[in-house]
Design a protein that fits this description.
The chain is α+β, with helices and mostly antiparallel strands. It folds into 3 domains: 16-106, Alpha Horseshoe (Serine Threonine Protein Phosphatase 5, Tetratricopeptide repeat), CATH 1.25.40; 110-175, Immunoglobulin-like, CATH 2.60.40; 207-309. The protein has 8 helices and 9 strands. It has a 4-stranded antiparallel beta sheet with strand order 3-2-5-6, with no helix packed on it. The radius of gyration is 38 Å and the shape is flat.
Length: 310
């Protein structure tokens, strides 16, 4: 039995279709082709790329570029055509078709390039919010207003330039370096020039004012909860009446019963919430009134036989 076992270990059998890269690529390719013929060009382009990743083929790469072109994704289509042209395709018509599409799409986009002054440098270049490597310049952009950002190593090193780029034209952005940030003024010395004197802190709000604000907030929430309770109570009564009026009929009014039970549960919960808010509002009102009275007594001025008394 040992010899057959060794032969079986040396020859494990055919690779499952889901693990065979060629079969997997073909399966995805066929699905992409179906999406293409259904005019779902965006989905077809993504699937063609997945097929190319599973097992590279010029047919899948060309299909991805053609799909994104038909979907209006011009920049993606041009990038894929660039990759396609790095290979040699012996298909009788596909290379010429790719060249025609590439030339037509190139006329629809503009380009962005930069000029860096001697001694100037930056860490990151962004075009329309996306990082772009210097080796990718000049970069293709869609016509319109384009924003170029130069970022340095320091947080203040940031330069932003905007300009309009036309189709078929190249806009050159000149970078001469980062401008120095404005110096922050030092703290103003208090009268007398003594830096140890600290400025007065803003006064804290009075306790009576805080309590009053809490009371009015609680009153508003209680009123809103009361309105909601009234509405739900009316709905509960309506559903109960519907349920009781149809009770004994065929079919059984299960919908009205379910609505009645649901509204009743929500109403009971809202009763508890409204009661709690009302109690909270009453307590906060008592505290606000007491605080205001104490503050009024502390500030009360009376005129006695010996003069003013506080």
């Amino acid at each position: 039995m040992s010899a057959p076992d060794e032969r079986a270990a040396d020859n494990p059998g055919p690779t499952p279709p889901e693990l065979d890269p060629i079969k997997r690529a073909r399966t995805i390719f066929l699905e992409a082709r179906d999406r293409f013929y259904e005019d779902a060009f965006g989905e077809a382009g993504e699937l063609f790329l997945q097929s190319f990743t599973a097992y590279p083929s010029l047919e899948a790469l060309y299909g991805a570029a053609n799909s994104f072109e038909r979907n209006g994704d011009i920049l993606i289509a041009l990038e894929l055509y660039d990759r396609y042209f790095t290979y040699v395709d012996d298909h009788p018509t596909r290379p010429a078709s790719a060249q025609r599409s590439y030339r037509a799409l190139t006329r629809l986009v503009g380009r962005v390039d930069i000029e860096v002054a001697p001694g100037a440098s930056f860490r990151t270049l962004k075009i329309n919010g996306k990082p772009v490597a210097k080796a990718k310049l000049p970069a293709r952009v869609l016509p319109g207003v384009v924003r170029v950002e130069f970022l340095g190593d320091e947080t203040w090193q940031r330069e932003q330039l905007d300009t309009e780029v036309l189709a078929g034209a190249t806009a050159v952005f000149k970078f001469s370096g980062f401008r120095q940030p404005p110096k922050m003024p030092g703290p103003a010395l208090p009268p007398g020039g003594n830096p140890d004197i600290k400025p007065d802190t803003p006064p804290r709000p009075r306790r009576s004012q805080v309590a009053t604000n809490v009371f009015w907030a609680g009153l508003g929430m209680t009123a809103a909860s009361g309105v909601a309770l009234t509405t739900l109570g009316a709905l509960t009564i309506r559903e109960r009446n519907r349920f009781e009026s149809e009770l004994g009929m065929t079919p059984y009014p299960a919908d009205h019963e379910a609505n009645f039970q649901r509204y009743r549960q929500v109403t009971n919960v809202l009763i508890g919430v409204t009661s709690g808010l009302a109690a909270f509002t009453i307590v906060s009102g008592v505290i606000a009134l007491s605080s205001r009275r104490r503050a009024s007594q502390r500030n009360k001025v009376s005129l006695g036989p010996e003069g003013l008394h506080f």
